[in-house]
Amino acid sequence: MLEDLSHSILDIAENAVNAEATKIVIEIAEGLDENKITMIVSDNGKGMDEDLLSKISDPFVTSRKTRRVGLGIPFLRQAAEGCDGFFEIRSSPGKGTSVTASFRTDHIDCPPMGDLAATLITLLLGWPDKRWIFRYKINGRQFELDSDEIVRVLGDKESLRSCEVATWLKGWIDENLSILRLGGSDQYAQDKKS
User: Fold this and answer.
1) Which domains does the chain have, with CATH numbers?
2) pLDDT at 187
């Protein structure tokens, strides 16, 4: 089983990259009043046909050539359903895939969020040629990161691989997520009505 939700996000995002996606959107919505957290990872990759989609929760079905099992999706589904949440995959050939998992946060088996900033930095540094959009919402407030905006400031995509940039970005993401969780305001963690 994957240790936390950030590891699940990393696994699904890597699947999107392997599916030749050029744009991957990661959204997390936390409803403190609703006692629920929902994560959605969507991409514009090659998608799956109905046959593969119907088998995707089988750990012995994977499209990867480097290994024979795919445990990320089955474990995520099991965790979500085990926490009184839900799990869904939608996919269309040539249009992409969307994976949604929801969890009741006060359930004893609800996995921790993990280190989201480290996960995002791994994705940004690993695949700077992809467009990464990350949104974290808590009770209508939102932090958003768009790799295209970061690249515009840096001047080129390869600058994302710099240790100095990675260290700064991780600190910036951590700071904004902390501000968002504490209910403070910042120019990036702003009130947004959805």
Assistant:
1) 5-191 (3.30.565)
2) 44
